[in-house]
Amino acid sequence: MATIVLQVAGAALGGLVGGPVGAIVGRALGGLAGAAIDGALLSRTGGGTRRVVEGPRLQDVDGITSTEGAPIPRVYGRARVGGQLIWATRLKEEAVTTVTRTPSSGGKGSPPKTTTIETTYSYYANIAIGLCEGPVAYIRRAWADGKEIDLTRVNMRVHRGSESQTPDPLIIAKEGAANAPAYRGLAYVVFDHLPLAAYGNRIPQFSFEVVRPVEGLGSAIRAVNLIPGASEFGYMPGHVTQVLGFGASRSENRHQLMNSVDVVASLDMLTALCPNLERVALVVSWFGDDLRVGSCTIAPRVETAAKATEDGRGQLPWRVSSLTREAARLVSHVNGRPAYGGTPSDDSVIALIRHLKARGLEVVLYPFIMMDVPAGNGLPDPWTGAAGQPAYPWRGRLTCHPAPGRPGSPDGGPAVAAQVQAFFGHAQPQHFTRSGDVISYQGPPQWSLRRQILHYAHLAVAAGGVHGFVIGSELVSLTRLSAASGHYPATSALIALAEAVRAVVGPGTAITYAADWTEYGAHVRDDGREVRFPLDPLWASPAIDAVGIDFYPPLSDWRDGTDHADAGEARAIYDRDYLRGRLTAGEAYDWYYASEADRISQRRSPITDGAYGKPWLFRQKDLAGWWANEHVERVNGVETGRSAWQPGAKPVWLTELGVPAVDKGTNAPNVFPDPKSIDGGRPPFSS
What we know:
Layout: H1 2-44, E1 49-54, E2 77-81, E3 84-88, E4 92-102, E5 114-133, E6 138-144, E7 147-148, E8 156-159, H2 169-175, E9 186-195, E10 206-212, H3 217-220, E11 223-226, E12 241-245, E13 248-251, H4 262-273, E14 279-288, E15 298-299, E16 301-302, E17 308-311, E18 314-315, E19 319-320, E20 323-324, E21 329-330, E22 333-334, E23 337-338, H5 346-358, E24 362-371, H6 415-424, E25 432-435, E26 438-441, H7 449-462, E27 468-473, H8 476-479, H9 489-505, E28 510-516, E29 523-525, E30 530-532, H10 536-540, E31 547-551, H11 576-581, E32 591-592, H12 596-601, E33 605-606, H13 623-628, E34 632-635, E35 638-642, E36 652-657
């Protein structure tokens, strides 16, 4: 040990006196003196053999270089760039010395005791790498020598390249505040104390995935829906692992290397892309199992019946209300894999609500129904009477049995009310109790819409409250079932549900129902001779604070080639003025297709109202017309009286809005590509 210490001290002292030559002489003299001391120490402990081992030590290190006059790249969207070295310090060397004593065997003629003194060296780099013109949104991934870096295990600071960015604190510490450049307008990263052992004690070749969105859209977005809605622990902002066996585990909620868990990484990226984000609607799914509302149950499900999960504090079993994993139903499987993720565990939902609020975001809790009706189910189809309902349908197909228009349908009579009530169930606010973050249920043993919605109302309170709450969505075939002329039992049930939720969450939470874009307004029958507004009593209810609309109307009618009707309006489907104009024009506003044959030939029927001059009644895209006018219903072509709606009475929330990322997606934004679902597919004329 003394040999090592005095070698270093001798080199330092000799360097001060005689420069490089003095350092060499001082190191040698220090080594001799240290050897003498070590020998004396060893002799005092019984003598023996002494071995000094010194690990490999760098004399010089080649790092990444910078090129004089190299251009600064511009990035649009997402790109992988290498970058240029713009600042570095000398490598930091750390020495670790260990002493190991090996005793003799003790037998006659045994060798004496051996003492091994071993010194190993580790090296660390402080470097800054310029990437591209700023500002960028974030650095999504980084690679060193072609291998992706776990960014949670290194200290990498990202400077996004604004014109007002300040110098990095490490550069200030090393160079002084007066000499530390801010590199304004340049996006760059700083590695602080980067370990080099994994790269052969050399600075590796880096590359980075840079995200720089086109200006405009991201800064305009103020609210988003957070999905998938079905993931047992995907919403947990803390790390959760699945225990596979003794000493074996795998992550439940980490599948990227930029953050410790997926949802936090997603939110980091989201807030970087959308700096003016104010609100997040958190979608949480239970599963329906039958298109017949009188037979459909709605309940949480899991992916597998046996799974042990834990977080950093110990066991963290899946739990939703009073239901445990062992008692829950499984989601169906497609090709040996779960068709959906399981319902998010209550613990993860509560934790994420608190995490979102800690970020300064408002939360809208959005309980959701996914229809887990697998292929080959054998259930009677209320729409066709066939033995077998379509696979994984849209919840908008939920209806009475038989469906309206089929022989024996209860629609239009009192019997339909019983089927609707069976779907909503009889759960009441007082059937739920809360102990800390655990919500328990002691009501009727039924899995129903009311049980789902009221469970999450209590969970929202347990999480500290939410800004908004959605009591259901897109039940378009259900809300149009009538028990008598002008009486819609689902609307009455939704009003009662909204009142029950209000009793739980209090006046500070905005409540709405998320209607489909074909559902929120007029229901037209008999070639326009009957016009009703089934949801108007709900929109007028004091328990409802906003008109919620999942808004997916067609914005284009584009075809390949140049001989289609829309070709004269724009040079391409991506023309912003064309798409913007179609929000209040085109299909579902000026005209409609009466049949699929008409769509193929582009034979368009105009939307008019010759009787009373109110074409907005029939325009599903005309939100302003519906919102600003009195709603007068018609029976047999004659206006009969106003509905409960007061013009402009409530704000409109677009509770969902989007376009599938597929060719000609704006032709039918409501069509999603899901190969397992009967309602999945591509928009008309999409390639």
